[in-house]
Specification:
Number of strands: 0
Strand content: under 5%
Helix content: 40-55%
Number of helices: 4
Structural class: mainly alpha
Distance between the termini: 26 Å
Number of domains: 1
Length: 68
Amino acid sequence: MKKIIKESKKIYFEIDMDDREQMMGALKYVRMNDGVKLSDLLTKEEFERVDAYFKKNFQIPCFNDEPL
């Protein structure tokens, strides 16, 4: 199993979006290549919508100060 995961280009996991602890734990593993940030991929308006959603539903800001 480790060999298969190591050789994979993409891996997908399921997270219970209602479990804040599980979501926060998973965030430390979310990274994109080359220092790309979420705000680099979205328009200002789109990012503001995502940020507002995280603040409303999870009481946390959308992490953008560090690459994801």
